[in-house]
Amino acid sequence: MTSGFKLTLAQINPTVGDITGNCALMQAAATRAQAAGASLVVFPELSLTGYYPGDLLDEPDFLARIEQGLADLLSATRSTPGLHWVVGAPQRREGPGKALQNCLLVLADGAVRLRYAKQLLPTYNIFDERRHFEPGPDLARVLRVGGQQVGFLICEDGWNDEGRDYAVNPFERLADAAPDLVVSINASPSSIGKHALRRKLFAAASARHQLPLVYVNQVGGHDQIIYDGSSFAVEPQAGVVFEAERFSEAIRTLIFNDGHFCEASGACLPPSSDEGLPAMEFYRRQIVLGLRDYARRCGFTRAVVGSSGGIDSALTLALAAEALGAENVVGITMPSKFSSAGSVDDSVTLCRNLGVRLIEHPIRDLVATYGAGFSAAFSAPLQGLPLENLQARVRGTILMEYSNAFGHLLLTTGNKSEISVGYCTLYGDTNGGLGLIGDLYKTEVFDLCRHLNAAAGRELIPFAIIDKEPSAELAPDQRDTDSLPPYPVLDAILKQLIEGERLGEDERAAVAAAFARQQASEEGRALISRIKRMIARNEYKRRQAPPILRLRGRAFGSGRQMPIAAKYDF
Asked: Which of 10, 253, 342, 344 is the most exposed place for a label (fewest CB within 10 A)?
């Protein structure tokens, strides 16, 4: 069967603010849709500007560029006669309230055939759409295209079908209009468990209203946030019957006929499994895409990492090599008088395994010079914590010098466990342009290293690094457990305090049980209180740290906003 209504799901990777580039992406996809005989090509939410443009929307010049971009798209539609383009763009509005709306526009043959303004504007976690947009009116918008009555939603409009979070239910209102097909355009960020949740919610809404649906999502990394694509089609009885590629661009044309979807060739769609990626593989792909797009959009082709011989820098180097190519990554080992010979040797083995260039820059003499200057100026020896932090800051300075001199993006190597409790040095190991593993707890760092080795079928990250006891090596015989509880204990407490109900079902029970064991003893309760205080008093460090690639529902940065100058009672 090749007859029926053809539509193209254009899962593109727009760049925030690049109106010209985003128009070119849409024009190229529309040309492919026209060649496939499609009547409709669907792009993601705010596809013209990329999601999310933030306070660029307050700039008059940017708004003028948006209007020019829409004019260019309208002109381009004349070269694809009969094809309807579903695009997302900010639109000006009149009257009280915000001056803009987040809109879906259907363009065809040089004209705007339909305009729909997003009704539900998320203002939670990483979202702040109400800052710039006014909600659209509570009404359904449908358009007849190619003999089909098509209804439209924008992202959050479809997430409230059970009415939990908003007084308005756009999906229910659209169902009252009885369309043949629902089109939802989206910019849905990726985090662990989000893929399964999307499919579950929209399959349930499709079944409840007996409405087939296509869900088109953007893909790519934008600052901290990564979009995984995974656009899909849903049938009321069968659930999700098609899903586009994950973590990559995809232009896919389907046939919609009598409530069912099939391949553009007429062949039946292969089964679509609800099973997502294993957690470690998900983390790997999300980080690799996030780094690749961050570097590309910021104009970097190469990266540098301080290689301590520890597991955090080892994992960062391995992920950077995969994302950018080993030939574009440099490791720098900076031994001090407290560094073990094994740490330098482990860095050598690691970089040889990865194919990464390793440079040695000892810091013993630099630290001694600083110490002598300190003593001469302040009539006191440089020792204890100031000496430990000095070593980290000397290393951070060297790495920034290299970045400045040779144009490499400096990647910071802190993990979520250490960042949570402030086990890091401001202006030292927190230096950098991007944190790859700052949303991974320490126990997950170990797990991901083992996963990379298993996936490679060889020892990418030396077992000597994975098996050694963690140490900052800033003082004689120093171990992380001198300052922190064992990481399995710390991570369970941190996950409960920071993630809480955002944990996935597979983690929630185990974490709650571990947390309950701590609460059962006076010593455990004291430890929980201590960790709470450490989290609170180190917010000032996190506020000054580089952006962290978001992997979980509550990453540090825009996803967790806490005051610094405040008093917490625990």
From this structure: 342
Query: CA 410, CA 414: separation in Å to the nearest integer?
Result: 13
Question: What one-character-per-residue DSSP string does 413-439 give?
Answer: ---HHHHHHT-S-TTTTT-SSEESSTT
The C-alpha atoms of residue 360 and residue 87 are separated, in whole angstroms, by 51
pTM: 0.95
Both structure tokens of 405: 């001199």
Q: How many CB atoms lie within 10 A of CB 392?
A: 23
Q: 444-471 burial string, b = 16+ CB within 10 Å, else e?
A: bbbebbebbbeeeeeebbbeebbebebb
User: Alpha-carbon distance 545 to 564, whole Å?
Assistant: 14
- The two three-digit tokens of residue 236, written as one number: 């009321």
CA gap 388, 386 in Å, rounded: 5
How many whole angstroms separate alpha carbon 118 and alpha carbon 491? 39
Q: What is the 3-class SS of 151-194, one letter each residue?
A: EEEEHHHHCCCCCCCCCCCHHHHHHHCCCCEEEEEECCECCCCH
User: In residues, how long is the chain?
Assistant: 570
d(CA 60, CA 549): 30
Q: How far, in Å, CA of 127 to CA of 125, rounded?
A: 6
Structure tokens at 12: 């593109």
User: Are the C-beta atoms of 320 and 408 separated by less than 8 Å?
Assistant: no
Per-10-residue mean pLDDT for the chain, 570 residues long?
A: 83 98 98 97 98 96 97 98 98 94 98 98 93 96 96 95 86 95 98 94 96 98 97 96 97 96 90 84 98 97 96 97 98 88 88 97 95 95 92 96 98 96 94 97 97 97 90 68 87 94 85 91 93 93 95 89 78
**Residues labelled as active-site residues:** 45, 118, 155
The distance in angstroms from the start CA to the end CA of the chain is: 66
Q: Are 19 and 66 a contacting pair, CB within 8 Å?
A: yes
For residue 220, what are the CA distances in angstroms to 227, 291, 393, 424, 467? 5, 10, 33, 30, 34
Beta bridge partners of 460: none
What token pair was written down for 4? 């029926």
Q: What are phi and psi of 142, to 5 degrees?
A: -130, 155
CA nearest to 389, candidates 341, 430, 342: 430
**Across the chain, how many H-helices and E-strands are there?**
16, 20
